[in-house]
Design brief:
By secondary structure, this protein is an all-beta fold. It is 3% helix and 37% strand. The strands form two sheets. The protein has a six-stranded antiparallel barrel. A six-stranded antiparallel beta barrel has the order 9-10-11-16-13-12.
């Protein structure tokens, strides 16, 4: 994980200065944000309106209060976190402020969504910044993508090499994870960077981890587990988590609706969902 925290993870420095996979990245920095120790993005749902409270997305392990425990889900937690919004050319154009953690977990996926104190329309008027749209469909193997880091103002370009049945790192397990083809050798500090489909410009995932040292299933050394339980791993493999599942769980007004039909995100313990009526 834990593609973050330069001060705490010296290995992050090893990647600085490496030549990007593409000399001229296809994706600009529209909608990209920089946090104090991670990357992120200003995002909207396919059905979001300009007057809705804006949302920003990063990893669950980038929570300002520390990494979440396996099985832990946070909803509606107050937050005052700030982040810097980038313009298309990578320049900082404004500061965004969160009011709450709308949703966060490191179970099944690794995502955190902030609700901000401004609408998309207000942000556009005050900064000129625009969000990126979350894709509503799963990512396809072979899709050209860009991993766009606001922390480094740097882009990694590659293809989606594989969708992994299960990815395990320490005590955490994620499902249907994206493994990058060579070229997206992301480093610490790129946690939370959106994975952008180069053809559509939509966000199909969120960058979150990589195997640093060639170990199996330990912190910073994720391993792949297939349907039969077979484990494989390789030093240098890097990964992200798909984000299309959010589109089924956030409804009108950018409100979290975990009881919506089709919402498969992990639920907080004790949440009672409606019982379906007989047909």
């Amino acid at each position: 994980m834990l593609r973050r925290l330069l001060l705490l993870l010296p290995i992050a420095l090893l990647g600085i200065g490496a030549t990007p996979a593409a000399a001229t990245p296809a994706t600009d920095y529209t909608g990209i944000v920089a946090l104090d120790d991670c990357s992120g993005s200003l995002v909207r749902l396919p059905g979001s309106r300009d007057t809705d409270p804006a949302l920003a997305m990063t990893n669950g392990h980038c929570d300002e209060n520390g990494m979440l425990e396996p099985g832990e889900v946070i909803t509606g937690q107050p937050s005052r976190r700030t982040m810097e919004l980038l313009g298309a050319n990578g320049a900082h154009i404004g500061t965004l402020r969160a009011t709450e953690i709308l949703y966060a977990t490191m179970t099944d996926t690794d995502v955190l969504v902030y609700r901000l104190d401004s609408s998309y329309r207000q942000i556009a008027r005050e900064t000129g910044g625009k969000p990126r749209t979350l894709a509503a469909a799963p990512a396809d193997v072979g899709t050209p993508v860009d991993v766009v880091s606001g922390y480094f103002t740097r882009t990694w370009s590659c293809d989606i090499g594989r969708v992994v049945y299960s990815l395990r790192e320490g005590d955490w397990t994620w499902h249907a994870s994206i493994r990058y083809s060579p070229g997206c050798d992301t480093i610490h500090g790129t946690s939370g960077s959106p994975i952008v489909d180069r053809g559509t410009g939509q966000v199909v995932g969120i960058n979150n981890t990589g195997n640093d040292s060639g170990y199996s299933c330990t912190l910073d050394n994720p391993c792949e587990v297939d349907e039969q339980g077979a484990v494989s791993f390789a030093q240098g493999r890097t990964y992200g988590q798909q984000t299309y599942g959010l589109t089924a769980c956030i409804g009108r007004g950018n409100r979290l609706e975990l009881n919506r039909s089709g919402c498969l995100l992990p639920k907080p313990q004790g949440l009672t969902l409606p019982i379906p009526l007989p047909a």
